[in-house]
Design goal:
single chain, alpha+beta, L-fuculose-1-phosphate Aldolase, nine-stranded mixed sheet, 38% helix, 18% strand, globular
Length: 221
């Protein structure tokens, strides 16, 4: 019989496999979680994410105590727990996606080159380097996230969060796309970022027209 915890484990495993298929999770590098009430389903450490199964997803409480599963949770557990504690997040994705990692090697932040980046909260900050799994990294990421749905980690990777697991995955894919766009444009010259005024103008159009949401014909008048 299905339960919220079982469903969450199934969804996290499916999300990890999707991200691996897209090239954002390689081997055992990266982690995914979702929160259901006061339980967090999170990928286990050392698992090959392209092949991960629901039984390789561990369920913990908000303090990190394992309540279900037979594998130790990811080494980035405290990064996830801290974001859940400080932000209204329902899911978190941490990748070592190649283009996102490349941008984090060079820039202090990823500017807004295209209006599709706006759901990420504008420019994406690059968090200073700290070793993986450390309290210092978890603290630095949380400090960078107010008002943001994503952060790049210097010489490491990227983190996205959202209210739902689907949206956290979409944010990770969107961030990788934006980083690819930056790198492609930089081959030609210096990429031109949207100004704050241009970003605000796009936001106004989105709010006025409902852009990006399915809409019946009688609404689109």
């Amino acid at each position: 019989m299905s339960s919220p915890a079982h469903d969450a484990r199934t969804q996290v495993a499916a999300a990890a496999r999707r991200l691996a298929e897209a090239g954002l999770l390689i081997g055992t590098a990266g982690n995914v979680s979702t929160r259901v009430d006061d339980r967090i389903a999170i990928t286990a450490t050392g698992t090959v994410l392209a092949d991960i199964t629901p039984d390789q997803i561990t369920v913990v409480d908000p303090h990190g105590t394992v309540v279900s599963g037979t594998f130790a949770p990811t080494s980035e557990l405290h990064l996830h727990l801290g974001i859940y504690r400080d932000f209204d997040a329902g899911a978190i994705v941490h990748t070592h996606a190649p283009k996102s990692t490349a941008v984090g090697l060079v820039l202090p932040e990823l500017p807004v080159l295209h209006y599709q980046q706006l759901p990420l909260g504008g420019p994406t900050p690059v968090v200073p380097f700290h070793p993986f799994g450390t309290p210092e990294l978890a603290d630095a990421v949380r400090a960078a996230l107010p008002g943001k749905q994503a952060a790049l980690l210097a010489n490491h990777g990227a983190v996205t969060h959202a209210a739902t697991l689907d949206d956290a995955v979409e944010h990770a894919l969107l961030l990788e796309w934006a980083c690819t766009l930056f790198l492609d444009a930089a081959i030609i010259g210096t990429p031109r970022a949207l100004t704050t005024e241009e970003q605000a103008a796009v936001t106004e159009v989105v709010q006025r027209t409902g852009y990006g949401r399915p809409m019946a014909l009688d609404q689109h008048r």
